[in-house]
Amino acid sequence: MKFPQHAPRFLSLWLFSVFCVMLLLALGRLALWIFAAEAGFPPEETARAWSVALRFDMMAAAYLCTPVLLCWGATAAFPRRRRALLKAARIAALCAGVLVVLLEVADFGFFLEYGDQFNVWVLGMANDDARAVIGTILRDYAWERYLLAAAAGTLAWTLFFLPASRRVVKIAAALPRSRGISLAFFFAALACAVVFYRGGAHRRPLRLRDAAVCATEKLNNLVLNPVYALKTALVDRWKISNQGAAPYFVGDVPAQAKLLFGKKAENAQTISELFMTKNERLNPGTPPPKRVFLFVMESYDRWPMLEKYAGLGLCDALRALEKNGASSPNFVSGADGTMLSLSAILSGIPDIEAAQNYRPGGEKAFPTALAEIFGRLGYKTRFAYCGYGFWQHVENYAREQGFDEVVLGGDVPDCPKKYKGEWGVPDHFLFSHLEKLADADGDAPVFTLVLSASYHPPYDLPLEEFGCPPLRVSAELEKIFDGKTPLNTFAHFRYADRALGKFVADVSRKHPDTLFAVTGDHFSRRFPNANPTAAERTQVPFVLAGKGVSAGTALPFGTHADIAPTLLSLCAPEGFEYMTFGVSLFSEKARERRCAYGARAVVHEGGLFIYGTPQESCGKKIPPEEAEAMKAETDALRALAWTYFEKGDALRPPEKEKK
Known about the structure:
The protein contains 22 helices and 16 strands. With 659 residues, it is an alpha/beta fold. A hairpin with a 2-residue loop joins strand 15 and strand 16.
């Protein structure tokens, strides 16, 4: 049997391939690191991050080069095919390197956009409008550069690896053919394999949680490589999609209920009885607003509302609404993606790390659903979106969540075809159409949820045709801007704000009994520079104006889960019973609660911290033990929401019958 005698050639090829692929991964990270170096990472944290990063590279390289070992193993069954198997092993190792090059080029672009390596959003095309995504990439991103980089990297890798690997095999073949040398190679490779596949010579294998080695989120994001990050994204996608597997925050659900509700949870049989609420009317004795508009604005950050950015004029209309109404200065979205946030708003079920619009539970309206509750109050419910109904199954999902009417970009008659893009019609065309519908509604009470789309790649609207001149930055603000995000991108934010402001002004003038609420679906990932604070890169606005809202009202911290009960404080009668996972921001309960969860962040009275990394925070510093307690509370609420959505209303599993 010639199996052991073939060891030097195959195992030397495997070791060489692992080393080369590991070097490729490290070089790719170095390119990302150079891009991110402007953040000024501390030297000791940089060294710690690289030490763990190389372990991830080692593990990924070993797995990618596994076909070389499989080819060696096949020589035991096919000894006469040794040469062909050796050639196949070299080709497999070559392909592993090519795959790494392609992934690194794609990951570089992904990192520029998201400040993170591949995560679950890279797989968004599975549910998203693939045509719109591809069109956006071709029009808004320098895809030619990435294609050129991929071709150049592939060529360089091929020209290096093929002759180098041939030479390595030739050197190994020149060694004396003895069983002792073969066994020495075998045991040396075995020892290396144990170390490589485990990600180091540590007591346990390397895991994803080991990537969180620093206090800076962006630095932690550089620890992984695109291979491991893509594998993690695939696993996360599997969890979020149609599997219904319990996410990490679901533990002993009755115990988690007790953590939130104390003795009330001990006697409760259902989850709904824990979250049933009696409405506290803000202005009892006054008629409710006839029209209610909830605007969920695409990628609407709160940072343009801050005083230091006021000179840009990005959101003058929203700032005016804030001045004349109510606003929460510490507010976060339900999730960090449009559909996850939107589905949480529509269903009333907080983000549970599941694609609610694709899960069986999303096919019906829960008692928490926004349209369901407003329907009980006698409002006609309307869902309006600038885009098209097939995006994320949104048209059917809105109807399933109880909306009586759905208005989409294709339903807007006054928008010329030349202005219709991949993501629908520009905001002001939809808003103008909704104004006409509001006029036609007469005295009938109507609740309308509006999802905008204009502040979204490819940022190619003819803004000057829409009356929006180019954006200029004053000399005072030039110090803040690093120029990496084109001003035209921020000009689209200003356009969306002006369209919103015009709609509110026009409708308020004709229909003074209207209530307006404005929030963002999620933060935008577009900032003046590379170093936004935790608040600037996380918070979204929540502004109320119009019927029943006193000017200058400051609301406490909150999340998307609080929108429904806050609106009901202005629209529902005193004592109206409904179910909600949030609280009204007008209530004492909102001012007394310790924390709330949204978009990977825990918000509290003194500020917020990024979920899982309390060091990434703004405002009041929270001691580690208190941060863990807050995290446990937010995990408990999400666990109850997940159980309610996936398993039903029962708080405890039914007891098994005794035989």
